[in-house]
């Protein structure tokens, strides 16, 4: 099991690290200020556009683009093992992934277009997405059902006079309110009575300005609105789109969801490892710069134990991510459901705990926006729910492991 | 050890519970909406004023008022054991304590006025505070020093021409931005070279509109600004107040701080028990109303174990609070430092974990403002830092226990 | 809720504490040596008999005896609230309870005789048990079924020619191998087809030397055989006893089990609090007497945090026990199932963790028999299984709490 | 970072797995019985000798032998990455490593002879050790000092008339009582006043029957004597050995200790991963074979969550071990102190918790000798103290990480 990224990826890693040092960390304060001052929190920040241009120039663009689609990126495509250390680096600043056109949910959506869209759909939506000109949303989760089981989805999609008619309610639709978001991939049911529960769903493309689709409100998690990307609650009230807006084909929505979600979960975990690593580094700096009761924190045995524990846990989280990546690279995500579930249910909680510890070392200030940690804590906490509560994945994994060993 | 509240307190508890049912829970949504719509998030919400009037009429007013100061409340004063179950009830809604004039930091500040102020100071500030007409702040914590050790405080207070002149920076000054806040109790050093480190400090009263005092920014914790009360960073730049504005006397600031902080810590813990209890109840309701994979959550063994664990932990937290209250009632806070530290370092973390579990049972929605839990989670997390990081108190408690048993 | 023990109990507590100081702690080494040297590890140790005589003389005898049976003890009976602090004291040395005739399973068995036996049965067995002349066992748990649900018990009891005939297998039969054990209370099924699952069971008395009953082996838990009391696996092969040996009546076995188990669980928890408390005190002594890297352990912040945490957790465990005791005293065990379950599923695990921490502070020696802790750790671990795995009780408690709050 | 073992090691793994299936697991019961029946618990069990012969024949012998010493093994030496999966397999049965001549402390001692002994010493002791004819002990830990810091060692070694004279006390001397143990490597101080604390120590060889060396007692941990290998307390009272019995040279004892301990720690962790993995597999089997309240354990969501969590944690522990192995292979142990400390302080505790969980799923029986788990639990618990308490290693690691990131 060779977890070494390719030479190409190693080169990109060096360039990316330098870019983070030169252009991202020094701009954290400016970014926060632009966002604070913004009249519309979901508008584009000038700084983001500057940095995107710079990153594109530097060849640090669309790094997520998988190796089976070399045509969509300058770097020729990267494996999961290649991408993980890059995503980890980007995860060290919450808003950094967008600079490299690597932010959720756009990466997942672009992969959907690469894998499942028609040429026309790709030309219309994938091209501007790859260029970073527009943003997109993926509308799957619904407030009234346990959406982690995609077969529970209830939004109705009915064929009527050469159009699909959508009715229903979605929430936690990431990116929906961003002013550049132009297209929604919407999952719903076209055939709710189909005996095969996995053939009931269809995914259709809904442009943002379509009549009948209204954003009810931005959602917050632990007090964060995650602007300018954010999460929305949306109502679909007789929303009509042409039949050609179907993705892949009627009744194939579940198949798309399956293909989309595994990489998404892994990308979150990769970034969270970076978030934890950076928190650890902040805690180390704090430990030498702050004294209590006459000694620097760094000389307190409790602080050393916590730093030691955090280091060890981050190592384990990173290795778990890497092994899972390797298995996906070699066997595909469908043969890696055990390790993906293990990663998804382990890393966010572990990272939440690491960050909690590092915040605590910072005193009251650790909880504020003066540091990256509080927002990263929210990101980790949120990932324990994103793509389904951990418990649902533990159920599936537990069952699989019991079956494996109980003969 | 009789943990039963007095009959008077039991009566108040019944009335308060009824008030919560009739006037608080049904208004949670309206309160949230008024705050969302508010142009100034730190302005007074009309709903709050209505509810305050109602609570005052109902005799549910200044419930915190301790038994040694019967003159300041209609109910004649309550012990810690009496007050704890009332504060627990109020803690079930984050903004409820203010309705009963029982919110931090005003309760602590009013106690300071009761115990340490001159008659003139009391007339000017305590009377309107007791009436709920004005609000107040307590300015102790400073960003650049470990403020949990009050002797580290650095704000300079110098006597100059019949005035005190203040220079320094404070943060996490709760209530500072609220539009009704009129008075700050400010802790600083008048005699930094005094060999007795506990005689260096003085507390003075600074009216909000005093020249030279400027609010730098509202602080957030985990994304919450806690409006309309909130926490501020404040600069004191040659702020001048008359000599009569000293509290108790020059060099007696540490003594006041000691007297103020113990009740404050206990009040937080009392309220947090209520926050945890309500989260548990929400989780129980959720468990019967939500199904996953064909069974209601309430029938999943894992859910039952989590409910069971949460119930048991809340029982323990509540008992720890109550025993500490009893000991304070009987022996005073100075003889109860062990139990106060045990409570302060145990209850917030325990409650954070209970709420985390209950949020998780609610799916993605559990993290949003649709429920009380996310904000309560932030409150619990924050209390692990408020009045000093838990670790500082654990240090003192650990030392005390080692001394006790190591002979 | 007054958790204060009666004056009588307070007096006994003083005497018991003095007795522990004078006669128990100073004999711990001698006791261990006698047991090591013993040819038969389940024989009576001379030291135990000496101490029992002394305790009886001192009026520290049958302290468990409940207040509804004053006739069976010199002290006139104690409530649960009275007994808890006494049992806590005894729990500070694993073998101490027997000195005061207060050890499991004899206390529970004596209560069964008090509550459910005929006069003849009481005269024959209860009297010598109360005198400490004989020991007894309670045979309920079976290896092949989940015995925490008493309705699963399978040992067959059939009426045949004026006798009960027993066939089956039991394990974890505490005390079975002790040389003074003379009587077994055996639970089995006389009516396995009864539609009422709670009427299928009967309990009968089986003298130890009865033909057909054979002890298969002593069982160990974590390497401990718990000699000279111990736990046995036993086979019943056509064991015959006269019909008069039935307890209470045919079909009433479940009722007896219900009545017996609640106090047993509470007694374990009371003693475990004492075990944790003593471990904490040992850890404090260790902290001042051992240095690493140039400082006594007591000055390491991590040690202080662990002592602080342990102190706080023990306080909570003790309070949980006491509140449950109070509720049993006032409402009876059947109305206290929630709190009994909360105590049973919380205290042993909490105590296990406290002891684990205190052992760790002792270095490698902490795991040996040089200290009381390793054996107490085993006791706490074992109690998470005794009377049913915690999970079974959490299931019941979780269900009960959900029903309470979900309306 | 390629974690794949060599082809040679993969072949050995296949053979070893088959050997475990055919000769180890089927003999677990017989082994336990022979040990129970043994008059001398530290004598050689016939079964062990049979299995050793068989393993030697199968080429599964001295698998620990490192690649820099190909001359000492038939397989030509294995790297850490090669050996880890083999040690994991052996760790699935507590006594299995000895079958393959791979048990502690002999492996570490043989490495000491390989690296530091003279030809004569090697011929006399290493050859029979490699053949499994004799056993050995490593005497370093002392009861009265924190031995994790080797500079604290106090046993006195004085040169006198052409001999070394040893005086002092050691404990936790693994293997000392085993009847085949013939040689002790003893660490002591020859130059306690040397200003260089790392030059004060010397290691000398002491044959078991040397006058003045007496075994005081076998030590137990959590009730286990770990017979027939076991741990002893030993007194050295004017023990005299010839000068040629020095290892490497006077004053070089610390250097040897450094070289010996790192592999020892890793071997424990490798085996513990196997212990955890087997416990997980036992728990899976239990989950399908046991029902409670009408459903097999495998269908309880809580069981699935615990299996899922255990699987994930074991994956992480294994990866942490493997990464550390790789780094040792590439950079040597002195450049891998961070990862060795991370592994040593993480894996035993993690494994203890996994086993605790798996035991609990087995009901009361899970704590007995009917399963491998209880003894493995003791092994994991003990490893948190072996080679120094985890806290000491966390101190060093914490310091190292703080220095790394705090610049």
From TrEMBL, chains A, B, C, D:
Q: Does the keyword Membrane apply?
A: no
Keyword annotations = FAD, Flavoprotein, Oxidoreductase
Give, as one word, the top-level EC class: oxidoreductase
Name the gene: bbsG_1
Q: Under what name is this protein listed? A: (R)-benzylsuccinyl-CoA dehydrogenase
UniProt domain Acyl-CoA oxidase/dehydrogenase middle: residue ranges: 138-239
Q: Which residues form a coiled coil?
A: none
Q: Which residues form the Acyl-CoA dehydrogenase/oxidase N-terminal domain?
A: 10-132
What top-level branch of life does the organism fall under?
Answer: Bacteria
């Amino acid at each position: 099991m060779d977890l070494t990224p390719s030479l190409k990826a190693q080169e990109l890693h060096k360039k990316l690290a330098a870019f983070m040092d030169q252009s991202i960390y020094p701009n954290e304060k400016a970014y926060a200020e632009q966002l604070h001052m913004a009249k519309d929190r979901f508008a584009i920040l000038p700084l983001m556009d500057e940095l995107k241009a710079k990153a594109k120039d530097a060849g640090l663009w669309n790094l997520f683009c998988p190796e089976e689609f070399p045509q969509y990126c300058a770097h020729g495509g990267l494996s999961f093992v290649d991408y993980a250390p890059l995503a980890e680096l980007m995860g060290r600043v919450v808003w950094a992934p967008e600079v490299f056109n690597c932010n959720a949910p756009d990466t997942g959506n672009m992969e959907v277009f690469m894998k499942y869209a028609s040429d026309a759909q790709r030309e219309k939506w994938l091209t501007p997405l790859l260029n970073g000109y527009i943003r997109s949303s993926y509308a799957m989760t619904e407030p009234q059902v346990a959406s982690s089981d995609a077969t529970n989805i209830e939004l109705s999609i009915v064929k009527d006079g050469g159009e699909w008619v959508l009715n229903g309610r979605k929430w936690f639709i990431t990116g929906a309110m961003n002013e550049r978001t132009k297209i929604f991939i919407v999952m719903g049911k076209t055939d709710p009575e189909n005996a095969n529960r996995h053939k009931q769903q269809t995914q259709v493309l809904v442009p943002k300005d379509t009549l009948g689709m209204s954003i009810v409100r931005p959602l917050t998690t632990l007090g964060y609105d995650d602007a300018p990307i954010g999460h929305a609650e949306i109502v679909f009230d007789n929303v009509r789109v042409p039949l050609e807006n179907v993705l892949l084909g009627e009744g194939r929505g579940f198949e798309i969801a399956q293909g989309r979600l595994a990489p998404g979960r892994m990308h979150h975990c990769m970034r969270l490892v970076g978030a934890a690593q950076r928190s650890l580094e902040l805690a180390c700096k704090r430990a030498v710069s702050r004294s209590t009761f006459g000694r620097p924190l760094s000389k307190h045995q409790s602080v050393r134990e916590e730093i030691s524990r955090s280091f060890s846990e981050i190592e384990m989280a990173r290795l778990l991510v890497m092994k899972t990546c390797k298995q996906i690279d070699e066997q595909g995500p469908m043969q890696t459901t055990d390790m993906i579930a293990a990663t998804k249910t382990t890393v966010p909680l572990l990272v939440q705990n690491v960050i909690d510890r590092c915040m605590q070392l910072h005193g009251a200030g650790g909880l504020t926006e003066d540091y990256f940690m509080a927002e990263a804590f929210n990101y980790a906490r949120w990932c324990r729910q994103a793509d389904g509560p951990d418990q649902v994945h533990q159920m599936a994994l537990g069952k699989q492991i019991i079956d494996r060993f109980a003969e």
